[in-house]
Amino acid sequence: MAGSNQGIPHYRVIIIGAGFAGLGMAIRLRQAGETDFVVFEKESGVGGTWWVNSYPGCACDVESHLYAFSFAPNPDWRRLFAPAREIRDYLQRCAERFGVMPHVRLNTGIRRMDWDDSAGLWHLLDAGGARYTANVVVAGMGALSVPHYPDIPGLERFRGRVFHSQQWDHEHVLDNRRVAVIGTGASAVQFVPRIRPKVRHLDLYQRTPPWIVPRPDRAVSHRERRRLRRFPGLQLAWRWGLYWLLEARVLAFARYPGLMRLLQRSAERHLREQVPDPRLRRALTPDYLFGCKRILLSDDFYPAVTAENVDLITAGIREVREDAIVTLDGIERPADTIILGTGFRAADPVPTGMIFGRHGVDLGEHWADGPQAYKGTTIAGFPNLFMLMGPNTGLGHSSVVLMIESQIAYVMDALRRMHRGGIGAVDVKPDVQQAWNRWLQRRLQGTVWNVGGCRSWYLHPVSGRNVTLWPGFTWQFRLRTRRFDLGAYGTRPVDADTSATVGRVAVPGKEW
Ligand code: NAP
C-alpha cells in the first residue's frame, strides 16, 4: 500500500480476480519488484474458474502441458487433461511459490469502481462497503464467470431443486432422483456421464447438438512424470509440440473454413461408432459446420445418452411447472431436480452499474451492443483500466493462458513506460480503438464462427458481432502486445504533489 487518502487504502495497482489472469499478473508484478498491489478475489480461495466450477467431471479440454503458465511448467500433471481440482492446486502452488498470497484478499468482491478524472484515480467499493483507490486497475474477472440463467417461463415456480452447473449443489443428493438437465454444451457433456449412473431418470433437453470428437486423455505415468522432472527440456519440447499442433488448426478455423468439412469426419465417425440407433444419431447430429460452436471432447457423453435411464429431448421447452417440464409438443415430464448447463454471459461480461469511466459512463451500458476494446485490453474513456481476457481474446483452438500471458506482458510494459516517462494515466484514443475493431471484424468475416451456420455465444445477441474470439494465431496476438504502444494513447503526467500521499497520480484537471 503506497498510502492512504483520508483513511482510504491506496494501491498502485489493484487486480480483480485470482484466476489464471489475476494471479499471472500478480506474479509478474512481484517478479518485477513491485509490492504496491493487491488482488481482490470474491471467492474464498484462489483459482478463478477452477475454484468456482466444481461440478462432477469438471476438467480442462486443453492439454495441461499447454494449459499452464510458461514460467511455471508442471511436470506433475497426472492426466493429459487435468481435472479442475488439479488445476486449482497448481494455481494455489504458483501463488505461494511466487509470493503473491500475502497480496491476495479473499472473500472481497468488487461491487463498483469509478474513475475520478480530477484526481486521476480509480475509486473502488467492495461488497462489504469498504473503499479503496488505485492508480491502475487490472480486471481479471474471467470471460466466462457470469452464469447464463435461461428465461424459461415458470422456472421460478419449480418446487424442486434448481441449480446452475457453475454453482453445483453438492449437498443435494442425486441418487434416485428424476433429473432434468438443460443444455448440451461443454459443461453438460462432462457432468451428464458422471451423474447418469446415480439418478433414477435423466431427461436431457438439447436445443442444439454439439460436434463431439474423441478425448485423447490418459494418465501420465509415474515414470513419465519422473522423466519430465529430471529433463525440463523434455517438457518444453512437449509444450512446443502441442502448441504448434493446435496452432495449425487456425488455418481451418480462421482462414479456410472449408477444411472443417474434412475435420468434421472424425466427429461423424465418433457419433456413428458410439450411437448405433439411427434416430438418436440424427437427433445428435449438428446441422452447422464443425467448429462454428466450440468443439467438444468426450468419450463418455454419447454412451451416457444411449443409456436406458436417459431420454434425449429435442422439442423446445414451453414452460416449467411446479414439478415438471412441458415441451412445445405439449408433453409434460416430471422432474424433482433441474440442472442448468446453460453456459455463461460471455458476450456481456461486465454487468451494468459496476464500472464507470470518464464522465460517469457505465461500461455495461457503453457495451450494450457488444463489448469492444483495443487489443482486447484497454477501452477508450476508461483510463488506467486493463482488462485481461477482454473482448476478442478468446480462442477456439488453443490455450487461453497464451493470450493471458501476452496481455500481462503488455500491461507490464505499460506500467514500466508510465513509471519511466512520468505518466500518470493513459487512455486509448477512440479512433485507434475503432480502427482496431474494424480490422478485427474484417478478419472475422470469413471465419467458421461467422460463416459456419450456427448461433453461438461467440456472437453478441444484439449486434451479431463476434465479440469474443481472436481471429488468428496466438503468436500474432503476442507480437501485437509485445510492447506497449504509447502512441495509441492519450496521456497525462504524474502530479508530484499528490503522489506523496496517494502514489503516482495524474495532475488534476490536465487535458488528455
Ligand atoms: P455452453 O457451451 O454455452 O452451453 C450451453 C448450453 O445450454 C447449450 O447447449 C445451449 O444451447 C443451452 N441453452 C442455453 N440457453 C438455453 C435455453 N434457454 N433453453 C435451452 N437450452 C439452452 O455452456 P457451457 O457448457 O457451460 O460451456 C461454456 C464454455 O465454458 C465452453 O464453451 C468453454 O469455453 C468453457 N468450458 C470449458 C470447459 C473445459 O473443459 N475447459 C468445460 C466447461 C466449459 P444452444 O447451443 O442452442 O445455445
> How does the helix and strand content classify structurally?
alpha/beta
CATH topology of the largest domain: FAD/NAD(P)-binding domain
Work out the oligomeric state of the chains in this entry: single chain
Task: Domain count, please report it.
Answer: 2
* Bound small-molecule species: NADP nicotinamide-adenine-dinucleotide phosphate
CATH top level assignment of the largest domain: Alpha Beta
Low-confidence stretches: 497-510
Distance between the termini: 27 Å
Beta-strand content: 15-25%
CATH architecture of the largest domain: 3-Layer(bba) Sandwich
Shape assignment: globular
Instruction: Note the main sheet.
Output: 9 strands, mixed
Average pLDDT: 94
Radius of gyration, CA atoms, in whole angstroms: 24 Å
Number of helices: 16
Count of strand segments? 21
CATH H-level superfamily title of the largest domain = FAD/NAD(P)-binding domain
Share in helix: 25-40%
Describe what you observe in this structure.
By secondary structure, this protein is an alpha/beta fold. Helix content is 30%, strand content 18%. The radius of gyration is 24 Å and the shape is globular.
Task: List descriptors.
five-stranded parallel sheet, 512 residues, nine-stranded mixed sheet, binds NADP nicotinamide-adenine-dinucleotide phosphate, alpha/beta, 16 helices, globular, 18% strand, FAD/NAD(P)-binding domain
